[in-house]
Structures are given as C-alpha cells and as structure tokens.
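Forum > Structural Biology > Help requests

Title: Can anyone predict the 3D structure of Sulfur carrier protein FdhD?

Hi all, first post here. I have the sequence for Sulfur carrier protein FdhD but no way to get a structure on my laptop. I'd be grateful if someone could post the structure tokens.
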Amino acid sequence: MEKRTMGCEARTVTRIQAESKKTLEDFVIQECPIALVYNGISHVVMMATPIDLVEFAKGFSLSEGIIPNLHALYAIDVQHSELGIVIEMKIASSAFVKLKLQRRQLVGRSGCGLCGIESLQQFEQLLLQVTTPFNPNWLNQIEPAVKNLNFHQPLTGLTGAAHAAAWVEQGEIKAIFEDVGRHNALDKLLGYIAIQNIQVAEGFVLMTSRASYELIRKCAQLNIAMLATISAPSTLAIDLAKQAGLTLASFCREKRFALYTQIQQER
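Reply #1:
Sure, ran it for you. Structure tokens for Sulfur carrier protein FdhD below:
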C-alpha cells in the first residue's frame, strides 16, 4: 500500500547492513511529467515534483521570458491525470506571437539542458542585465540563513532527495520551495516572488544545489542581484553571472563562502 504526503510517497524498502536485513516503509520524493500549455499549444514537458504547481507555472513562464509579467497571464488551469499533469495557461496575444516564433518541443529532465534553443547566439540573447543594486550587507546574511536552512526543508527531511530555493531578507528565510530539480525549485520561488510582488532589492536567493548556468539566467530574468548556493559553481555559471552583473557566492556554509563574482553597482 502506498501512502502519500506533500511531494512524496511511502514505499517499501529493504535495508541491509552487515548481517542484518530489515523491511520497512520509507518516504520517496515524487517526480512526474508536467506539461505546460500556452493558448492550447503544448510548449514543454518538465519532470518535477507535483506540488506548488501554480507558482511553478508562473515562475517558469517568467524566468523563461515567455511572459514579461503576470499581467500577460490571463488564466491558469491545473489538470491531473494518470499520465501526469497538464497546466493550461492563457497568455496575451503579443506574448503568444513571440513564443510561436521560437516554439520548441522538449522534455525537461531533473538537470535541464539548453531547453531546445537552436543556436549559441540565441543562448546569449536570453541573458538579461541585472539592474537591482547589490547590497554588501547580504554577504553577512548568508551565515544565519544557511544555519537555519535545514529547518525549512520538510520534503528533504523526509526523502533526502529535494533541492530547495529560498528567499532571504535580513538573514531570515522568508519563503522556500522544494523540488526534485533545482531549476524547478527556483521557478517555484520566482513564481511566488512575482505573485506576492516581493521587492527583489530587499534580498537574495539561497539554493541547496550547485550554481548552474540556468539558475543564473533565471535569477537575471527577474532582476535578482545575488545568488548564493551551498555547492560549487560551474565555469559557465560564473561567466554568465559576470556578464549579467549578478553577484555569485558558492560553497556557502555556516561560517564560510566563496565569492566568484561581486558586482559593485553604483546607480
């Protein structure tokens, strides 16, 4: 028998240690296909944890540049089936025309690739410049935020398999979202930020994952000035952070972190 809680299911597992063998129930994170459909046209299928779906759909639409803001998203409908989940969205005609010009069909995985773009030139064009001023005090807020991070990750506590994306202000975690995929967790957080009309100049994003290029691009798309990650960055993430004007801190632990870019903005 399967038992379900938010984002995970209880499955039977046999644990073996030395001479002992024990059968019990263990929580396992959920992962399922989620199709994002715009004005009746299927755009992408993402493999994600099926929680916080409205935030996910809105965050993805914004971070991928499909809509310029939430005013261009007129309606959203989440439909569940045995095969997976379909999220139907109605967007402004101007956004839909732009989307059709770069229409792609793809399957996103837990570690998403370039999401179907057709050229390196197109990849460069996707990166926006961050205009939100960097606040040096954010660097002092990394330690208290990291220290309390584990207390805000219920799905990780149950399964040990989720990435988390948190919004930090004054060293406190104000919002956090979890998913099997790091970019999905970030999209959920970005959707929440847009829905709540949070002022991005007031804080920064903290993630439990490595710093990959798509996290940089998504943060830049919403004009977020700093990304802090628990694990290492990639070379492309560092290069794109510099290009976008985004401060990147990685290897963030309770009493240390490494700055790979630090943008001193005077605006």
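The longest helix spans residues 182-195. Residues 212 and 234 are 6 Å apart (CA to CA).
Shout if anything looks off.
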